[in-house]
Amino acid sequence: MSEKSSLYPELIRAIKPATGTLGVLLPGLGAVATTLIAGVHLINKGLAQPHGSLTQMQRMRLGKRTNPRFALIKEVVPLTNLNDLVFGGWDIFPENAYQIACHAGVLSRELLDQVKDQLESVRPWPAVFEQAYVRRLSGPHLKAGPTKKHLADMLIEDIEAFRRREGVQRVVMVWCGSTEVFMQPSPVHETIEAFEAGLKANAPEISPCMIYTYAAISAGVPFANGSPNLAVDIPALVEYAHKRHVPIAGKDFKTGQTFLKTVVAPGLKAKMLGLTGWFSTNILGNRDGEVLDDQGSFRTKEVSKSSVLGAILQPELYPDLYGKVFHKVRIEYYPPRGDAKEGWDNIDIFGWLGQPMQIKINFLCRDSILAAPVALDLALFLDLAQRAGLSGIQEWLSFYFKSPMARVDLQPEHDLFIQHLKLTNTLRILVGEEVLDHSGLDYYESGDAYRAGMGGA
Amino acid sequence: MSEKSSLYPELIRAIKPATGTLGVLLPGLGAVATTLIAGVHLINKGLAQPHGSLTQMQRMRLGKRTNPRFALIKEVVPLTNLNDLVFGGWDIFPENAYQIACHAGVLSRELLDQVKDQLESVRPWPAVFEQAYVRRLSGPHLKAGPTKKHLADMLIEDIEAFRRREGVQRVVMVWCGSTEVFMQPSPVHETIEAFEAGLKANAPEISPCMIYTYAAISAGVPFANGSPNLAVDIPALVEYAHKRHVPIAGKDFKTGQTFLKTVVAPGLKAKMLGLTGWFSTNILGNRDGEVLDDQGSFRTKEVSKSSVLGAILQPELYPDLYGKVFHKVRIEYYPPRGDAKEGWDNIDIFGWLGQPMQIKINFLCRDSILAAPVALDLALFLDLAQRAGLSGIQEWLSFYFKSPMARVDLQPEHDLFIQHLKLTNTLRILVGEEVLDHSGLDYYESGDAYRAGMGGA
Amino acid sequence: MSEKSSLYPELIRAIKPATGTLGVLLPGLGAVATTLIAGVHLINKGLAQPHGSLTQMQRMRLGKRTNPRFALIKEVVPLTNLNDLVFGGWDIFPENAYQIACHAGVLSRELLDQVKDQLESVRPWPAVFEQAYVRRLSGPHLKAGPTKKHLADMLIEDIEAFRRREGVQRVVMVWCGSTEVFMQPSPVHETIEAFEAGLKANAPEISPCMIYTYAAISAGVPFANGSPNLAVDIPALVEYAHKRHVPIAGKDFKTGQTFLKTVVAPGLKAKMLGLTGWFSTNILGNRDGEVLDDQGSFRTKEVSKSSVLGAILQPELYPDLYGKVFHKVRIEYYPPRGDAKEGWDNIDIFGWLGQPMQIKINFLCRDSILAAPVALDLALFLDLAQRAGLSGIQEWLSFYFKSPMARVDLQPEHDLFIQHLKLTNTLRILVGEEVLDHSGLDYYESGDAYRAGMGGA
Amino acid sequence: MSEKSSLYPELIRAIKPATGTLGVLLPGLGAVATTLIAGVHLINKGLAQPHGSLTQMQRMRLGKRTNPRFALIKEVVPLTNLNDLVFGGWDIFPENAYQIACHAGVLSRELLDQVKDQLESVRPWPAVFEQAYVRRLSGPHLKAGPTKKHLADMLIEDIEAFRRREGVQRVVMVWCGSTEVFMQPSPVHETIEAFEAGLKANAPEISPCMIYTYAAISAGVPFANGSPNLAVDIPALVEYAHKRHVPIAGKDFKTGQTFLKTVVAPGLKAKMLGLTGWFSTNILGNRDGEVLDDQGSFRTKEVSKSSVLGAILQPELYPDLYGKVFHKVRIEYYPPRGDAKEGWDNIDIFGWLGQPMQIKINFLCRDSILAAPVALDLALFLDLAQRAGLSGIQEWLSFYFKSPMARVDLQPEHDLFIQHLKLTNTLRILVGEEVLDHSGLDYYESGDAYRAGMGGA
């Protein structure tokens, strides 16, 4: 039948149970982070549902199609319960999570007021921040120190103090901060030694986001990067994560337009429909939009968004179909939208004999609503990875990222459906279940197929 | 690594070579059929490319990601060459394929004139047709006979005469005719005995499309049904195909709006985004649109188009997310569009905490341009199946259909990406290659992973 | 200069002042009516603004462009103040306006609660209703009587009782009820004598909407018809309105898609852009959508919506440009939308040398939000008309209707901009102001033009 | 009745007949110009129709609605016949009009070949051009001279030589060249004396477009500016046109997105629907798109496109409705589109009680197809104006421009419908016909209204 009993016996893991509480630390206590925190508390109170979260709602098939079992992911692998999450974070403003959430305008006041106490209790620590890296932002609630190494140490102290105060068993960190200016890998980013020297020498190539990543790994805390910032993906920090046995994942939450792009592009390729151009524009009105109105930050995001098509379409294999794609991505700050974000995609395709056709997609989405469950899943899956003894790059979490990380000698995977199968088959492997390959010929060509096919005895 | 050497050794087939010519018979010599025929001749002359065809252009990965080989499908399995195709067909009008193609207006006169001779040589045989089954059509070029059995025999004679005249080694048939009125399975459709009795008794439950299917199977000719008509999927004919060792496939070419629906819906489900409603409207102006302007034919198409969402979204597993989807499909005859077909989809989704969002898709597509390569691939793959000794329902061809067929005890698969993996993994299995499961954890957690991951020595 | 002092001195009117209160009676106390009532009270309390209402917000230019005065319409003509409105109505359900508004879901509970008392005090009288005329509706709160004449008399008694109880000086009626089945003019509708005989004989050609209209005119109450029902536009009732000196207006509020159509079509015609097709679909989920899901009611609405293009484009004058327009209007009941209504228009145009182009418009509108200020303006303008001594058809109110009424020997005017100029110039005429013709050549070709044009001395 | 016999007797003109031929000179022999020339010849041969042209196809009502006459504009005023046009032009490339048109790809080769001879005979004169003003373009076919005055004189010589060679009675010039970098009015532009001094001193404030304008006026040739360049609208040249008795018009052809904007915005305002934002993006792939990819040229176009909304919506009168409009216009070079141009507009509006709604417009238009008839009409109307003795700014031609010109003490008119009425009423005035004011109350309130209204005796 389609599935075989474990093909990967050597990869089965004895996963430590998810006992006790899990601290979830969020650098950047803005719209996404507070939407996540408010949501978890609303869900715990039975006032809302965790739509959009695979860890909470998704089922996977185990067993054969003739006798399938559709089990919740959280029943297949041991995940921390939502009731056991404790939140903390850093921000450049001192407001508590309730105040921030009210200001962000993502959730109605009516919803927020039902978890007001829980939100008010989350007060950000002062942030590591420099305006040179995010030109459109500035805030008063900052750490100060003579070197970046000092700043990193202060973050580690925050983490340890949080562990002690809250009594959490484990901690994960998910970057929810802003997009920094575009940076390219440099010698400082090559080795952990060079990086640590740079920290002490205040190297300009080391951005705040990197300092958080370094602090997390130092403290044994798994780290996910929700932004396109160059940080967890520099060789120095990948190496460091391996050495410290810390799982890491990145980068740039895949939410609205890019999510749809990684749905539609694989569909076009599966059908061998050619592509001459893809024009994507976004209008959004929140702080994210304001930050991206700066060319430096926009460049970082643009690079992250643009890599998607090439990796999926493989123009080197299909020069006739995908060799001349004009791909343009625009992000437009448009305050009337608020946190709602709207994408408009124009896709110029061609089929049989080169005949042209067009697809236009208008996505009226909501940034933080799409990002919050991604942040949640990453927190829970990274904690799972740590308990399963995995470390370094977690490629099986590519599903969640615009710019997924992979071994340097592997092509990162962008196709949402391959990413999804990678995620679920990895979970199956970890617990010794059969993987799915969806081939299915055995249902028809084995001995009993005709009879079964005919519904006969 | 991700792939294991053949997991399905018992399914490896000794496939007969594709020597000689293949006859492709097309009931319904309209826009789709003539676009296919013209295209094949243009491609053979080097004047156009077979975009949209997997058999001609698609590559599959063989081997590991660290050392992949991306081979053309037609290099992996032995397919009939486009130069070896010979076309024939039936229609209710006597015009030759050139005249029909000019009238259909799908391809420019400039293109058609370059293969005028080849098109003119395809003259349809008189059709088996009754207006009771397609109310908006009528034509003069019809067969007449006292019973449906006589009509079936006349079709078989056409096939045999074609074999002799053209000297073709093998023959396949792909239904490109119109959508018939909605019919439900009845006792006549249950067994081949009942069906053959019905043929002789002129049972009204037996439509022209069924007569073609019966004739094809009788003549040992693989059959694919490009329309939503109840025909190849009735138990009588499935059983008959098994007995005669004839591969069959159906039904209803998946081309424009439904193609995109089976791309987007799996994306929503992968992300656990809920759905409250999906409204799909189509405007089209060709003969297909005119036929579907009749409520009887529309109902047949509507049923075919509507089953898609439920099968993909599994509301029984996800009642909160997909238990109350309002799905409405409309087809509107709109002559200004001609053969171009335009879909507009409005998709109402919800995410984290039930917050609503919307996706709107406008697909300016071309019906025949999307359908022609589907018909081609089905012809070539069914011929392959026959040479590989497969018979009955070819579920691995689900990729091409709005209403894919499956064993009665299996849920048909609608997700385009699962269908695509099913197709490619089936091809891998037939030739003894490793299947892909996309898990990939072994690249990271085997002994050499860290080193490779670091690009190190 | 562009304007001349009154060109129509004989049409200047001595308008009675708007002293005391005005009763606004609404047959059909549903979403539109309650959105109107709630809105007026919210505005009176300073909690909201009358956006969308010309009587409350629009300004008109008086005087020359070189020295213009932009006066509020309500300063130019004496209109009843919003504080002086008193509402009443009829419905087939006995719920009060607060309950209905909560159920309709147009306005948030937060808004409604601020005028809860005022809304609760509006309790509908039992309605005149028969399900034969609106098949999808039925309700318990109905009047009963042996003949339609008796029912009409009961309505008149309601009006008179309302006058006495509320002490209102004047009354107007605006039909906000449902769309009835399609009816064509018949002998009963020809003269007031025939109509009154029909009332007594329970003629099936007399619908509930006609009975309300008859009652209003009998009671000297101006009447506007917000639905496409054949009623105020039958010759019998037009004649009756003249005899009773009652102003009337109709029919079918112009709100969402048709509003935009009467904006865009005049633009195409002004530019001499040809039209091959216009496909309009609507999705809506409220009671209105449910009623229109019935073919009988849909036909009435379809006819009303379809007449628009022909009247604007004048195909008889422009056979090359507009002689072969394929115009199709669809309304689709789609519950996920609720009161929000969405239109999608596909417009196939052609320009220079017949080259084709397309316009697609997606209007995410809200039915009751657009209709409420229309109902308000009609109430206030009809009251003005009565005080100004106007009676019968008020063509200058065409702006508000999908199927505007006109003298039988005149072509109704559908172009929104001509309608708007007609409305504003009519107001100018009534008070003796100069009309605008927008010609403006005099600013350039009179003696002082060059100097002024140069800004010189 | 609605119309009065001539209200403007002093403005009636004795218009000279349009005898003989008219030379139409086009600086910038690109896609627009060659589409115009090819079209006129195709029309003259009876092979195509002048869709999109008011001078050729539009009718105006003369007389009362009860007895209307719908006369073609070209029957009401004496316009030059299309058979009497002779074309010439300047370009930076030496190719003839046939070669350019083939390269532009606006019209099919099949169409162009039918007027090949006529197109080949139009060979551009060397252009006055400097790359500093249009950074993305450069070409070899240029005039050279020591000062801009010399260049202007060379243009005048071209015009005079053209007159002599072709024997044309009259000449007009319509700028079809590229958008120059953004310039602001400076002292050189203030008076004709300063301007002529600047020409001699090679003042950088004087762009090529201004040199053409100066040359035209000097030669007594009416001039229209199809681009947003600062040129015909500087005080020096307005004054010069008055002195020379030359009619002028500008600026920036109103074709696709802005055309629709000036259709929809007046509709919103007429309805008193508020506006929070309007986001407009354009994708286009022709030379125009390439030029506008430069920030300097884009700025010029952006300013021209942005002024539209404010002028129509009058935020100073309606601060609540239009005081905070976020208006953003983007133009994106997207080569897959070719000459086809696509606009996507997102319009955020609000109605009754501030409730939000959205309109989205997708315009798949064709730049040159929309612009060519505009250029034609301007040529013919400017020639009419000159024969009617009009000079200086022709505000009645505002209809054709994104940035219409007006007397400095008047607000330019952007509303397409007011512009259209201004145009047609101006034509009525010139020939002594009654203007329309669309009031229409007289049809109802004059003595015979009731009778007529009832259709009675």
TrEMBL record, chains A, B, C, D:
Keywords: Membrane, Transmembrane, Transmembrane helix. InterPro entries: Myo-inos-1-P_Synthase, Myo-inos-1-P_Synthase_GAPDH, NAD(P)-bd_dom_sf. GO terms for molecular function: inositol-3-phosphate synthase activity. The chain crosses the membrane at residues 21-43. Residues 256-368 form the Myo-inositol-1-phosphate synthase GAPDH-like domain. The keyword Magnesium does not apply. One of its GO terms (biological process) is inositol biosynthetic process. Belongs to the myo-inositol 1-phosphate synthase family. This is Inositol-3-phosphate synthase. It comes from Candidatus Methylomirabilis limnetica. The lineage of its organism: Bacteria, Candidatus Methylomirabilota, Candidatus Methylomirabilia, Candidatus Methylomirabilales, Candidatus Methylomirabilaceae.
